[in-house]
Amino acid sequence: MDEDVTESAGAPPEPDENSGIGSGNRSESDAAAEDRDVTAPADGGPRRGAEHQALLTAVASAMAAAVAAATPAGGPAGTPPIPGALPAPLKPRKRHWLRWVAIGTSAAVLAVAGTGWWFYQRLDSNITTDTSTAAELQTYEKERPKPVVLDAENILLVGSDSRAGKGNSKYGRDDGGSQRSDTTILLHLPADRKSATAVSFPRDLMVEIPSCKRSDGSRSRPQSAQFNWAFEFGGAACTIRTVEKLTGIRVDHHMVVDFQGFKDMVDAVDGVQVCLKESVDDKDSKLKLSAGTHTLDGEQALGYVRARHSLGDGSDTQRMDRQQRFLGALFKKVQSNGVLLNPTQLYPVLYAATKAITSDPGLGSLSDLYDLTRSMRSVPTDKVQFLTVPRQPYTQDPNRDELVQPAADTLFEQLREDTVVTVVPKPAEDDGNGEESGDGSGDGSGDENTGGKSDGKSDGKAADSAAGKTREDAVFQGTNAAAGVCE
């Protein structure tokens, strides 16, 4: 049996007489014991020589398979054969096919990554960052309101009526780049992101405007004037300081959108549907539509939200109501699965949105905007609320507005403290255009109006008193994104 072991494992080396380890140093009993260990296990099982032979054969086969898999056909010159080696399990032709699949997959992954990076860079470069506003606000940091609630955000949205820029000259003469805020909305996002409240400021609202830095470097004087003059005096920085002074609310970010940007965003979602009970032909806003249901493109939508004298009673109040309802419908469509889950529609929306806005550095990158929109993605459309600050005709000029107190301060406190703002639909009144209308102001109480409409030049502005009502009892009239523009 010892011969079997010798033949399978190879002849043992001759003992080295000078090494101190040899047959002369072992007793016969040690040799016998060693022979017993190798040839005959104590438990009477099979001999280990056979186990060694099987083990060596398996190892050799595995080594041969590994070498064959890693070596081109034929192997390198001079490679000695391995005793007991098995044939390679993969044929060279199959290995070549797998190699080309791996190369093709890698190329596809790199192509997708490169395309994604190109799209990201293109969208990111679209955004215009307003660093001058940030610098101006930093100068007055000590007088600005402090943030009250962590993670709650207030974003001022400004629609500029500037005729400067591509595509805007057709809406009027460009007075050397002068501009006023055609629409101003303070968007409040609560810390829990379960709702969103958008508050409109009438452009004719009388406010205290601080001294502001003009575009030519000079400064305006502090004065009481109508709200939209602030944007003309000192751009976004002056408007933000005016809003903060009026409300006591810290404005965290701002976005400015011009006419062309608004049109592009509407076109990107393939239009927004509205209903008209009567035909409209407004030369000032360049809007001409027949009665019935229409899906407005960007040009028509701009005319629809800017029209004043040809829709409803011609008041600025109803114009703001119409703007709020249209923006709600636009938000609803962008949030719908047809846009967010459709790459062919989502990219144009992202491109139009990033191209349309001028924002502060805090929202000046695509990742910043993505984080903002992602935080609003789960907000139900009926929780996206729109209202106008409580106001009434200005006592010294019925063509201007003034705040109604304490209703206005109650609203501002709710937004500042990040508490729930309750907005209910306005009483339905037929304005001839398939829209609900009302006095356009928050009532702050839920009671019937105590104010009345002023003469024809007052734009039908009225407001309710909230005297005697607590903050928890306050209710404001408005609309939400679920209502849409068609009823």
From TrEMBL:
Keywords of this entry: Membrane, Transmembrane, Transmembrane helix
Source organism: Streptomyces corynorhini
Protein name (database record): LytR family transcriptional regulator
Biased composition (Basic and acidic residues): 27-38
Record-linked NCBIfam families: lytR_cpsA_psr (TIGR00350)
Family label: Belongs to the LytR/CpsA/Psr (LCP) family.
Membrane-crossing segments per the record: 97-120
Gene3D superfamilies: LCP protein
Span of domain Cell envelope-related transcriptional attenuator: 180-335
Superkingdom of the source species: Bacteria
Chain residue ranges for the region called Disordered: 1-48, 416-487
